[in-house]
Automatic annotation (TrEMBL):
This is Dephospho-CoA kinase. Gene3D superfamilies: P-loop containing nucleotide triphosphate hydrolases (3.40.50.300). It comes from Ligilactobacillus acidipiscis. It comes from the Bacteria. The lineage of its organism: Bacteria, Bacillati, Bacillota, Bacilli, Lactobacillales. Pfam families: CoaE (PF01121).
Amino acid sequence: MTYVLGLTGGIASGKSTVSDYLYEQGAVIIDADVVSREVVRPGAKGLSGLTAEFGQQILDEGGTLNRAALGDIIFNSKEKRDIVNGILHPLIKEEMLAQVESAAQKGTDVVVLAIPLLFESHCERYCDAVLVVDIDPNTQIQRLIERNGYTKEQAQARISSQMDPTERRKRADFVVDNNGSKEETYRQIDILLENVLE
């Protein structure tokens, strides 16, 4: 029986660190970010839907999606963010569920659905449990500034556009505190996996 674990958390909370470790422990990772890039490649339904809605301004010279241009549009408007999600989420969900089915048929023990907007897209219904990666807000802002070159205001805007961390924690089955060392984070995941696979 395949156990489907949803993995989510705020931007720059350390989801990739947790995902990479789960992969090392034998889990199959189905990453919404990877799938979302597939559905907006040139010629794909997602990109066609976005350009129909927002025009050519979201494309670069080669006709591929300019993520920064789209990001500037959606991070400042909940209405436009909802439009983008309405176009892309059904396509992403369909592909991810097909990958879960494929992994289950191969007898995989643990499949991880790594979805930044897991609760917002109501994908928790496809999971046996949800793991939230939690981090101190100041550390989160600092990581975004260092990783993406954002100003403090840009980092704060990205964080504010997401679900409130308290609400995310409340809805989680498991919470990994990612404020300490990687080793401390890994120990928490080991305990979780022991509980899941016992």
